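Exercise: predict the fold of this chain.
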Amino acid sequence: MSHLPLGGNFRQAWIDLCQKAGVDPRELLNKRLDTLLELILAASTMDSKAG
């Protein structure tokens, strides 16, 4: 699995995608924060088990 660096073009791409979809990026994150954190924790647990 490749890891993408934070910031730079990826951050701008995220903002651009949200704007094209007519969604406020901050509002989307706020609404889905619990789910996002669960996904991040699950992925980090899988990474630690694999390595």
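Check your answer against the key: Residues 8-47 form one domain.
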